[in-house]
Amino acid sequence: MKFGIRIPSIKKRITARTSIKRQVVHRAGLKMPRGYGWVRNPKKYAYNKVYNRTSFDIFNILKKLFK
Q1: What's the domain count of the chain?
Q2: What pTM was computed for the model?
Q3: What is the CA angle 55-11-48, rounded to 5?
Q4: 8 and 57 in contact (C-beta within 8 Å)?
Q5: What residues make up the domain containing 36?
């Protein structure tokens, strides 16, 4: 588990947003409503919940500084 600041990866950000799997699911209308991640994959939901509370993103810090 990661604690502290997350190191951003521009390559991974772009890849995640432009993947074939994401496009197929989006166009087929198979998306789950927001907040229903625990229904689709409870183990991943629990991991992400802890991860997001114990680490922070450099871009969020920059947003708050230049707000």
Answers
A1: 1
A2: 0.57
A3: 30
A4: yes
A5: 8-65
